[in-house]
Amino acid sequence: MAKFFFSTGAPGWMLPAMIKRVFVVMLLGLDFAKLPAAELKIWKLLDVWPGKVPGEKGDVPSETLTTHKYRGAPILKYNNVTKPTLTVFKPSQEQDTGASVVICPGGGYQILAWDLEGTEVAKWLNSIGVTGVVLKYRVPRRKGLEKHDAPLQDVQRAVSLVRHHAKEWGLDPKRIGILGFSAGGHLSATAMTNYDKRNYKPIDAIDQASCRPDFGVLIYPAYLVDKETKTELSPELSITKNTPPVFFAHAGDDSVPAEGSVRFWQELRRKGVKSEVHVFPSGGHGYGLRPSKDPVTAWPELCGDWLKSMGFLKR
């Protein structure tokens, strides 16, 4: 098994430049999707929190970035994240619609599938004129907390941060979406249904900006169904008429049952929230945007059509 190890033991002021250089080199080395070098440029890399990260006790090992094979191809994994960041990828000026999406990679709240469900997704979003903002949220699960407690703090702060900087970054503050895969899908769903109360004490002007996403995209989301009833939604997901519209994609043969996506969509429909759900006959779990013979490969095109029909890609 090939492995790349990256420890963030360097001084804090050096990390953004170091991570950017290592990240680009790794992408070039993996040659995923054979991207032109120009498309690999990181537009911005910034910390989610200005100082001490809420609730961190210093008991998590050093952060690492590793690579291994998954579904026959290499993927990058972030492990032991204690300092959340946002990596921003902007589309070309000619394509830019002003819309943006905060991307939440999956990984069971244990690791982050960084390229498969993060940077490769930003590349696709750029191709349809959307700024992709990849969130490196805290993993693994923190002892004594719900699996999503620390990540929810990170994603709420991330959405507010993008909205706070929207004018400066050339973005529309009313077209900031969220997109998540697997555990990242659960995190995105939790962010869309818990925006009215922050999971942390506000600390500065950024937290005055709303943390409500304007739309969501949930791809094979996990943990949506209550583990006790197995039919109702998880108790942290409270859907109202003000919940953002959502696009869902799931495979019928996924190890994570598609019933979670369908149940969430049903509740949105009952509340009058325009949404769209696709359950494909096959595709499994953890495919990201990588092409395969399975029909689920069509989800990005269908999602792009939905975003356009909902007015999120207007110029």
Task: Throw out a few tags for this protein.
single chain; 315 residues; alpha/beta; Rossmann fold; eight-stranded mixed sheet; three-stranded antiparallel sheet; 7 helices; disordered N terminus
SSE arrangement:
Blueprint: H1 15-30, E1 44-47, E2 64-70, E3 73-79, E4 85-89, E5 100-104, E6 111-113, H2 115-127, E7 131-136, H3 149-164, H4 166-169, E8 176-181, H5 183-193, E9 215-219, E10 246-251, H6 259-270, E11 276-280, H7 299-309
Parallel strand pairs: 5-7, 5-8, 8-9, 9-10, 10-11
Antiparallel strand pairs: 1-4, 2-3, 3-6, 4-7
Helix pairs in contact: 3-5
How would you summarize this macromolecular structure in one to three sentences?
Helix content is 26%, strand content 19%. With 315 residues, it is α/β, with parallel strands linked by helices.
How would you describe this protein?
The structure is a single chain. The protein is globular and about 45 Å long. The protein has 315 residues and is α/β, with parallel strands linked by helices. The termini are far apart. It has an eight-stranded mixed β-sheet with strand order 1-4-7-5-8-9-10-11, sandwiched between helices. It has a three-stranded antiparallel β-sheet with strand order 2-3-6. Mean pLDDT is 89; it is low at 1-38. It has a single domain (12-309), classed as Rossmann fold (3-Layer(aba) Sandwich). Helix 3 crosses helix 5. It has seven helices and eleven strands. 26% of the residues lie in helices and 19% in strands.
